[in-house]
Amino acid sequence: MLLLTQIIDLEFPVIVCLSNCDLAEPGLIEKWTLLLEQKLKCPIIPVSSKSHLNLDTLKERIQSIIQFSHIFISRKVIIQFLNKSLKNLNRILVQK
After folding, report:
1. How many helices (H) and strands (E) are present in the chain, helices listed first?
2. pTM of the prediction?
3. Scanning 12, 27, 44, 95, which has its CA 20 to 30 A from the CA of 73?
4. How far apart, in whole angstroms, are the C-alpha atoms of residue 17 and residue 64?
5. Using an 8 Å Cβ cutoff, are 30 and 44 in contact?
6. Using CB atoms within 10 A of its CB, is residue 87 exposed (0-12), middle (13-18) or buried (19+)?
């Protein structure tokens, strides 16, 4: 959590994914998502690779960061990381 807050403080684009959300109670996930969004001031996306929960939402968020990444200092590193993440998400979505 400390590393995450430091990255947020540096104003790098951040998306927090709550993984394996298909295993938790839906009401609990909603409460944690809202609480974390309020505390961290960044998008929190509950996801599950098994049930494909919110993977399309995650993909859209990553694409929007890529689109506006020109405002960040280490654009090349961010774009490489996000493109790799998109490839992994696409691979998971193809397995549906």
Report:
1. 4, 2
2. 0.69
3. 44
4. 16
5. no
6. exposed
Q: Cα-atom radius of gyration of the chain, to the nearest Å? A: 14
> Mapping DSSP to helix (H, G, I), strand (E, B) and coil, where does residue 16 land?
strand
Beta-bridge partner residues of 44: 16
Dmax (CA) of the chain: 39
Q: Sign of torsion, CA 70 59 78 40?
A: positive
Tokens matching residue 54:
């919110």
Confidence of residue 69 (pLDDT cuts 50, 70, 90): low
Q: How far apart are CA 35 and CA 58, in angstroms?
A: 19
Per-residue exposure over 58-67, b if at least 16 CB sit within 10 Å of its own CB, e if not: bbebbeebbe
Tokens of 30: 């909603």
